[in-house]
Amino acid sequence: MSSPGILAVVVRYKTALSDSQTIAGLAEALVDPELSRDVAVLLWDNSPAPLVDPQLPFAFQYGWTEQNLGTAGAYNQGIALAAEHGIPWMLLLDQDTDLTADFLRSMLRHSRALHGDSNIGSIVPFIRSYGQIVSPRRFRPLNRNTPVERNFTGLLREDGYAVNSASLMRVSALQEFGGYSNDFWLDLSDVYAFQQMYQRGRRIFVAGELELNHAIAGMNFQQEMVPERYETFLAAESAYLQMHRSRFENFVQTLWLPLRALRQWRQYRDKRYAKITWRYFIMRLTKPPATRLQIWREQLRGRRSIPAAKPLPDKAGGKAAA
């Protein structure tokens, strides 16, 4: 039996399987014999406690560790499983992605058509959040980025990235740089991976006919975001710039922070967001880069650690184990 062409990695966190929009979409889509044959599923659970004998109407494998691996750790488990079973592509999914059978068929078609072009490291759809196109995006000067034009289809030659959700990643391209970063285990895991691929000549193919709706917390501070979550993002953003961007770009970021804080003070009822941004601005002015990175790494260790993953138990009929 030939191996599946795509491993879909679904990352769960404290959500009942019956409440997962992604699981519901997969259940409907994988009734199709072709999709069931060519799309394997790994359900990676970052919840504090594992599910006991989880059951779904399609074949899958289930993985869990005692510590939250974040999206980066879950995707690295997917890379290892895909490589072990010779699966060339990995589809990244969280638990509330609006997934359809037509979307999976289109991704399969693109993966087969572009399989021979190793310069293409990823295939991505357009993602709309709260009425706006938020992915894919082009990097611009002065630490800015802008969404790719909605009528664009084809190879994105410029430096850019896409959000993790619904991105199809070439497994061999991810292996070239060792997979996702355990430092950026949650926020900026997508930026890190796409930047690493771009530096190695792997480009993004934009499947312009595909568009999915996906709620991104950063697009809705009033309802989705909470201050603690925003601070985690800001810390990762600051560390990423220090580790992977130029001194000039870091200088520009320092200038942007007070402007961001002023906008947040005016725009949001909860003033804690502006205060958090202002605190990071002061930190950039008063503490050297090495000290800021040390503080960030200590915070990472305090939040969670990443142990070796437990072996993945086989589900009966699991596609990835075929």
UniProtKB/TrEMBL annotation:
Entry keywords, A to Z: Transferase
Gene3D superfamilies: Spore Coat Polysaccharide Biosynthesis Protein SpsA, Chain A (3.90.550.10)
Keyword Transferase: yes
GO MF terms held by the record: transferase activity
Domain of life according to the entry: Bacteria
InterPro entries recorded: Glyco_trans_2-like, Nucleotide-diphossugar_trans
Domain Glycosyltransferase 2-like: 44-176
Chain ranges passing through the membrane: none
This protein's name: Putative glycosyltransferase
